[in-house]
């Protein structure tokens, strides 16, 4: 698909990245979870000089946050002690607040659906953390993805756990210095079994975390955001006829395509749009309503991992991490924004989401959805 482009890219690179060697220093970004713990152990087995870095991104003194960072830091120390490697806690609380959390709040307040994990990888893990690492050392993370000799970002071996989506804004210069020990591991269950075999029973038994850690396992994300975003409740209306069908609790707490949890009549209602000017939640009956399907999206703040700027490509694309990759065409609009047109209409695209494109397993980059184009002709 991108054969000629890749050929030209290799000519420009002239040489492969420096490949890791036994005895090289590797800084392992550790979270206290099973993935980073097993990664650190694998790196040590392979002969690297490994040290653990734990990133403190949230101030636990904020009574509104419940991130179990002290327990995570304790688990990191236990794993590092067992591996006989040094570990260090680094404070990125201010960086995270200003470069990730505040932008996330602003986006939700504006009716968008941002992805804070993409921002965290771009600005904190592969930004602030990488800046603290000596230039002759490698950074390693527990992401399920791979790189090759040229620093290309590739999908992980297990499609269901591939995390290259979250790294789509990380520049090639950072990927050249990064190792992904879990990229070739066949399954998450295999990683957990490895953790048990290595004696990491505590981290192997921990629940897998999803999203922002300080929201907590037993709190609704909308309830958490409500402590920071001051938006009033308002009317929920039927998009088809404008009839009021209930009340929403604040537009920031709803995402396009999700169940609206409005009890009115025989239908189950789903979010189709949000009108910030009138503070109304626009809903449609049924999860397959034609309004929920879109053909294309236009993205801003586009990042090409290798800095080249192709203008017309057949790609595989995703607008959500868990979404199955779909065939699409990538073009450039007259205003310079990238347009991703899907071969088949897809359900529930939302402004603010990250759209990411691949050539087969090679992650090329992505951008933030700025506009969405309905399916044409409309689905019957």
TrEMBL record:
Residue ranges annotated for the tRNA-specific 2-thiouridylase MnmA-like central domain, each copy included: 223-282
Annotated catalysed reactions: 5-taurinomethyluridine(34) in tRNA + S-sulfanyl-L-cysteinyl-[protein] + AH2 + ATP = 5-taurinomethyl-2-thiouridine(34) in tRNA + L-cysteinyl-[protein] + A + AMP + diphosphate + H(+)
Catalytic activity, EC: 2.8.1.14
Biological processes, Gene Ontology terms: tRNA wobble position uridine thiolation
GO molecular function terms noted in the UniProt entry: ATP binding; sulfurtransferase activity; tRNA binding
EC class (word): transferase
An annotated GO cellular component: mitochondrion
Purpose of the protein: Catalyzes the 2-thiolation of uridine at the wobble position (U34) of mitochondrial tRNA(Lys), tRNA(Glu) and tRNA(Gln). Required for the formation of 5-taurinomethyl-2-thiouridine (tm5s2U) of mitochondrial tRNA(Lys), tRNA(Glu), and tRNA(Gln) at the wobble position. ATP is required to activate the C2 atom of the wobble base.
Protein family per UniProt: Belongs to the MnmA/TRMU family.
UniProt name for this protein: tRNA-5-taurinomethyluridine 2-sulfurtransferase
Organism: Absidia glauca (Pin mould)
